[in-house]
Batch of 3 targets.
Target 1
Amino acid sequence: MNTENLLYLKDSYLKEVETEVKSANGKYVVLEKTIFYAQGGGQPFDTGKIIRLKDNKEFNVVFVGVFNEEVSHEASEEGLQKGDKVKCILNWNRRYMFMRYHTAMHLLISTINKHSGALITGNQISEDKSRLDLSLENFDKEAFIKWIQEVNEIIKTDAKVNNYFIKKDEAMKNPGLFKLKDKLPKDLEEYRITEIERVDIQADGGTHVKSLKEIGRLEFVDAENKGKGRKRVYFRVV
Ligand SMILES: [Zn+2]
């Protein structure tokens, strides 16, 4: 998959861009470049608008996913054609919430991993809370509460979050970059790295805030024992 045209990987703060329709199949549109995040890695898709510049007609973006190695935008109706010049506008409030959650998720995973050695086995971000599944042996609600408090202390350092690309050879020399259990990295030429200074470094395709204070604060919501080697925690950012 070509990541060059996924503008959010380099700059998660781009809220608008002008581009061109690369191909269209009914309501499904591929753009020359995009600011819309395609659903994946526990982060939901972005929504927003695609405005056709010749007549200012607006199409709502109702879903974004990866199909056949390309990011496909589902428009609310048909009409966009290959070659159309368009302006894309992100539903920024929704996306920014996901950025806060995604960076918070990295902090929580790295904190839990540091204390227990557990790896992440699943995660899902949503607008009002997020959940994280970990390969923990013991179910200990108090431990989750303590780890969340520790994350709140880390946030106060306001460490910077940097995104950059490294070559495959370099990435393979550092297995610690891949923190998802049972998930080997896809075969890519380059890997996008998200580094929270002094705290965490991971190969990652999500969108993040630039510095930790933007997250706000984490609140414990609930924890569930999902069975052997699978413990779940829910949290929200406020
Ligand atoms: Zn991530």
Target 2
Amino acid sequence: MVYSLRQQVLTEINPVMLTRIRVALQSRDALRRAVDFLIAAILFRLPPLLRSALFRGERHECPLCGAHLSGFLVLHRPFFRWCPVCRSLQRHRVSWLFIRQHILSVHPIRRMLHIAPEEALRQAFQRLPDIEYVSMDLYAADVLVRADVGWLPFASHAFDFIYCSHVLEHIPNDRAAMRELQRVLRPGGVALVLVPVWGKPTFEDPGVTDPVERERLFGQFDHVRWYGFDIVDRLTDSGFAVRVIRAGDVADVRAINRFGLDQADVLFGCTKPAR
Ligand SMILES: [Zn+2]
């Protein structure tokens, strides 16, 4: 177990991970971050069946993996609620509920692009019948296509659904990325876009490149901006019709609590107008 954990940690160490560790060590809550990192490193390497047994209960339910849970796990950030079985967060669970209720209920997804894939959602998408699933990331090794979201190596109108969550806030030229998402989507198709959003207008400063300063200004060491709700204007300028979706659009108050959703999470449902 210890040997396996050490091997896993060593294979995950890369320049991005080293920067993450350096920034965490310089933060005011360095000790809590280190403890959370260790808990996550150990817990999420236990077999899913064992995690499911450890957290079994009837108070909560994960709509992504179907686990019945005594509670969700608070790790890494005080507002994060992890499913201890599939490792989904609030935003993944609300996305899945929206996809089930408002996309799959209308028509099946034939060909989809999943950018920077989250494991819990990857598994859920791949379980859908007759789907051609394409995963893409600039850095990760376990994807079908390695590419930059600003230069998508796909034909126009190639996908009927795109899931792109917590990517654009890392991209200096986010408008180019939005135009690419629009280009590769078929008319009538939907791109579900998520970014961290605050209550003020979008704030960005390309001159800020120091990871510690980026974390202070933009909330994470590798973010290049904080988005405001004016992201809707950028998405609209890129050719999308945009719908703002919240947890209340897919679940009532009781279900929001049961599924561990967050009223503050926002999804941008971006439809490419039919020609
Ligand atoms: Zn789950």
Target 3
Amino acid sequence: MLKRFFITGTNARVGKTVVARAFLQALVKNGRSAVGYKPVARTNSAKQSGGYQKEIDLLQSTSSVTLPADIINPLVLCEGGSSEDDTRMDYHLLSDRLAQLGCQHDSVAIEGCSGWRSLMNDRRPLSDWVIKEQLPVLIVVGIQDGCINHAQLTAQAIMHDGLPLIGWVANRINPCMANYARIIDALSQVLPCPLLGEIPYLSRPEERDLSQYIDLATNTLLPAYT
Ligand SMILES: Nc1ncnc2c1ncn2[C@@H]1O[C@H](COP(=O)(O)OP(=O)(O)O)[C@@H](O)[C@H]1O
Ligand SMILES: [Mg+2]
């Protein structure tokens, strides 16, 4: 069973937090001590912190124990001002917190920031830190126009980085995609990892139990990563 895994997405707002919750719910239902971790969050401005705080609250409330918000999310980057945020990218802090969570819990679901090569304010992608930590990676594919292209490129980049690709989750963020089944079929054929879950379009997914949409059995077949 997976100990630590990193959740990336084909883009921003494709459902990484929703999928992180689904995995946490499924793991907790299976009797695991499981916590969410968001190393780097982004907010549009210091005043408009609601978006990222909601995200941290969701990870916090879905974890099997209630951890302080600054443990779940050590770094917040403020974007949207005229100058770039000068918050120091303290990668040691991100690693220390992850090590701490990994020692105390059976599973840590680590939510990334936007897509795989999304840049931090030091102009480095967070994927560099994921490589340093040698984390297995899960891709959330938001089913929308262009997702087959984005999903393949993301999978190729992760493999190029030498990381284990544990699977992908289809998240139906657009209820109007007429060719949904065909897209899932094509993705299943071209992505080099198993489909671990399929989340339908749901109103208020943040308020639901999503564990039923995740296939943990496929995960248990994989070697245990630490
Ligand atoms: N399966 C779904 N059905 C309906 N809405 C969804 C679904 N998944 C995500 N959403 C909505 O899409 C938005 C982005 O989801 P979120 O998990 O925050 O994405 P990310 O973490 O990748 O930025 C949220 O408003 C969320 O409620
Ligand atoms: Mg999120």
